[in-house]
Amino acid sequence: MKKVLRRSNDSSRNSINSAFTLRTVRYVECQTNHAASVGGYIVDGCREYMPATGTLNCAACGCHRNFHRREVETDVASDCTSASSTTT
């Protein structure tokens, strides 16, 4: 599972306010069709991508990571801080 944290600043917003986007990327079951050459549809049953050491191939089924279905979860958290102004 890969987690990415990004800070996004919108130029129309105050520089005090900022938002963080947390994206979680998971690669789940393998979608490789092993019977495509004979007109059928058979998958190998690999349920989740497990990275092999130093490559983008799955340690369980041997397929490249792109053959596994990708799930992306996005969470947005904002840090809203309002500047208070006081006059004396």
UniProtKB/TrEMBL annotation:
Pfam families: ZF-HD_dimer (PF04770). Coiled coil: none annotated. Residues 27-71 form the ZF-HD dimerization-type domain. GO terms for cellular component: nucleus. Keywords: Metal-binding, Zinc, Zinc-finger. InterPro entries: ZF_HD_homeobox_Cys/His_dimer (IPR006456). NCBIfam families: ZF_HD_prot_N (TIGR01566). This is ZF-HD dimerization-type domain-containing protein.
